[in-house]
Amino acid sequence: YNSFINKRKEVEILNEAQNILKKYFGYENFRPGQEELIDHILSKEDVLGIMPTGAGKSVCYQVPAMILDGITIVISPLISLMKDQVDSLNEIGIPATFINSTLSYNNYEQTIENIIHNVYKIIYVAPERLNSDTFLNLLNKINISMITIDEAHCVSQWGHDFRPSYCEIANMILNLKKRPIVSAFTATATELVKNDIVNLLHLENPYCLTTGFDRKNLKFSVETPLDKFDFIETYLDAHKNEAGIIYCLTRKNVDTVFDKLSDLGLSVSKYHGGMTEKQRRLSQEDFTFDRTKIMVATNAFGMGIDKSNIRYVIHYNMPKDLESYYQEAGRSGRDGENADCILLFSRSDIITNKLLIESIPSENAHYQEYEKLNDMVNYCNTDKCLRKYILEYFGEKTTFDNCGNCSNCLDTSEFTDITSETQKILSCIKRMNERFGSSMVVDVLRGSKGSRILSLGFDNLSTYGIMKDYSKDTLRDLISYLITEGYIKSIGDKYPVLMLTPMSNDVLFNGAKVSTKLKLNKSENRPLVTKSKESTIETKVDENLFTLLNDLRMKVANESNVAPFIIFSDASLKQMSTFYPTDAESMLKIEGVGLNKLVKYGNRFIETISDYVSKNNIKVSNLAKPQKTKTQKQDTRLITYEMYTNGMSIEDIASERGLTRISIENHLIDCLEKGMDLDLTKYVHTEFKTEIEKAINDIGIEKLKPIKEALPEDVSYFDIRYYIALSKLNNKSL
Question: What is the predicted pLDDT for the residue at 525?
Fold first, then answer.
């Protein structure tokens, strides 16, 4: 019996989570992994969620935060992320705030007062706050249900964004009078970083879930253009109205690219550590609010950026490791729409990264950093599936060799046999006794007359000058490719030497063949690069309507002083421009449209769509609207609302829908609280209005039973809830 009761409660809680997802966030179904993590959180278990950017990590703690009794504290590393998240939550009707250095004294005092009086369900804080005794005292005064650590990889020195302040989190939790649920989330984590998160945050028997790192909507490309800026100029000309980020390794590169794009008259911002805090903030706001379309930045920009409509991320230089690259590239396509992730590779990027590595003191001679850099270089040199390379780097098993959406898989050119070239390179390394790096090997193969080569007698080797017709860059690319494919080992960090592998022997002595899509061109300074084909995925989006809705979104965002993507995402606008929702019912079928957003913005968007449909004689049938899967449901409250406003009584609705009267009453009160137009007075004992309002003011609204007991017997719970809803609406209007 107890097992049955517990199972029933579990189902009820999950149904409540599903209702919150639809009501506030506007989605019918959870994404992969979300429901499992929420289930374990609501079962009072610690959790660790490793989910790629755009997979919906925030929903995993925001939904249970609305169900748990107390407050959820979210530890977040960046102020910009806090503001975006809090703005988004307040827009959809979830009370949230943040505490950080941007608050004035008066705002800080008011925020603390509100926290003490349980105004908020979610509070974002910077990790640096955890050192404050005042803040710890505050936490011990309030009921904390859960502490969430966002960007949890920052706790690990093996992570790519290590933050010493994250090391204080575990001590802070230990100093709380009552230990809450602890949940941790990150987008990228190797097994080593994952173990660090569990141990350093003192997670207790956590439920760990890695949903998979694959982002199928992202198209990965590696390009080696002769002129990087020419490539960018051509690309941007074809993507004029799209938002994107261009990452550069150095501040100097950021300034150079920014100046060149500005000279072209493009809408561009820049961001790096050499700018003042005010300059960086204004630049980020311009990009976030769509006042500029392009952001040129170092890796100082972006962690936690919640902008959903970024259509491309271009790396002007190769990053230092795959963790950084995948996180930065993953800032595109957060709305699930197609996006490009392009890395512009040149050998000078390797040198720049090595200089950056050596500029930071290290106890282990930078062994780890060089290993990660080698993995990054191998990614740039492979001719196999780029997506597969990334996923397997993060420990994910793959069942495909061709993803169909990366530059290598889209390259239709034939493989070229390079067995002869490979044998020459391997023989040269062998005859040099496997004691030198690629530069020396290339010089010997090309027949250099350098003093060191002559003094070592390498001009007497049979491989000396054997590949003099090949350029240095071509030979370096060939060697890099052979390293990537396992025919050569690169041993050492700062000054690596080349050594042979068992695969080398197969090529030299056992007749093994080697082939590649690398185009060898002896007359140019580098191999020819086959440009990846543009995606041919077709959509039915009405671009003219999309433009109108995009303009309306910008207008509404300016009026509300929030970023446009917080109003509706690009994905939501594209669905509207595909299915033409002209009433509340069909608008609620659009992903990202919940009741709160429908009430706040729905009418303006519906009017624009209806006007467009009428002027252009577009016939909208039910078949043209988003179709729900068998597991999807229309919001039950809206069904009740429409039946009531069409003249049906509460009793008739309950009978028609097979629900209890109380359920129908609850639906209508929920709609009333959302500000939807409803007249319920014929079902309310209005003669007790004064007594009910006085009892609400005297007793408060935390519990209904004490209010009911203080009032005449004829007063119903529906009467009380009705006047509480009116009180909330009046307070909002004030």
Answer: 41
